[in-house]
Amino acid sequence: EPEVTQTPSHQVTQMGQEVILRCVPISNHLYFYWYRQILGQKVEFLVSFYNNEISEKSEIFDDQFSVERPDGSNFTLKIRSTKLEDSAMYFCASCPGEVLQPQHFGDGTRLSIL
Amino acid sequence: GQQLNQSPQSMFIQEGEDVSMNCTSSSIFNTWLWYKQDPGEGPVLLIALYKAGELTSNGRLTAQFGITRKDSFLNISASIPSDVGIYFCAGQTRYNTDKLIFGTGTRLQVFP
Fold first, then answer.
1. Local confidence band at A72 (pLDDT 50, 70, 90 cut-offs)
2. Residue B15 CB: number of other CB atoms within 10 A?
3. I need a labelling partner for B95 at 20 to 30 A (CA). Which of A12, A106, B17, B34 fits?
């Protein structure tokens, strides 16, 4: 069964550095998402992306964050000037956009800011 | 913002027992979904509900979309050790391409 794949599985970065988290959504899917889960908490929406532009973003998704679909397969989340509180699991999800077709999640990237 | 409250927060049960958990909101949702998350992994979809009153099963799992559109429950029958994990409800307010709003989670422990 097709899967959403995310790399790396674990990223350790010094505070203040920039990180890029990568996702390969399921190939025929058109809608892409990033979510965040701080340890022990619920999953929170960050941003949704469709037709090469952001369709919705949460208040968490400020100027520190950006997303890009640089080619036909990858979907990236860039975090600039990382802070300690950016430490979390970051999940990518995708859905085809057809009726009754839900979002499918990758296994996440654990981001640790030191 | 919109919030989904899940209960119970955690459950400790004996293998073979049935489990029931629910999710409530003050807002109306058009879609309810139930996901399971194992440690170090992403949420895996269990059941998706698209119509108020809908009752759907997936093996030993049964979920219902509340008639008021403000709640949903998930039942697991005859629990087994691999049911251990965190169960999240999630809702969408309009379309199935909308963001997911997640509940607070129910942590399930199953003892042999």
1. confident
2. 12
3. A106
CA B108 to mean position of chain CA atoms = 12
Beta strands (DSSP E) in chain A are 5-7, 10-13, 19-24, 31-37, 44-50, 53-57, 65-68, 75-79, 88-95, 104-105, 109-113
Distance between CA atoms of residues B41 and A5, nearest Å: 12
Q: Is B94 on the interface with A (CB under 8 A)?
A: no
- Note whether B50 contacts A: Cβ–Cβ < 8 A: yes
Instruction: Note the pLDDT tens digit of each residue in A74-91.
Output: 999 999 999 999 999 999
Mean pLDDT of B87-102: 91
A102 and B45 within 8 Å at the Cβ level: the answer is yes
B63/B68 Cα distance (integer angstroms):
15
* Strand partners for A23: A6, A75
**How many beta-carbon pairs under 8 angstroms link A with B?**
60
User: In this predicted structure, what is the pLDDT of residue B2?
Assistant: 75
| Structure tokens that stand for B96 in this block | 């199935």
Q: Which of A97, A103, A108 sits opposite B100 (nearest CB)?
A: A103
Give residue B48's pLDDT. 94
pLDDT digits (tens, 9 = 90+) for B19-61: 999 999 999 999 999 999 998 888 999 999 999 999 999 999 9
Interface contact B44, partner A, CB < 8 A: yes
Chain A residue numbers with beta carbons less than 8 Å from the beta carbon of B88 are: 42-43
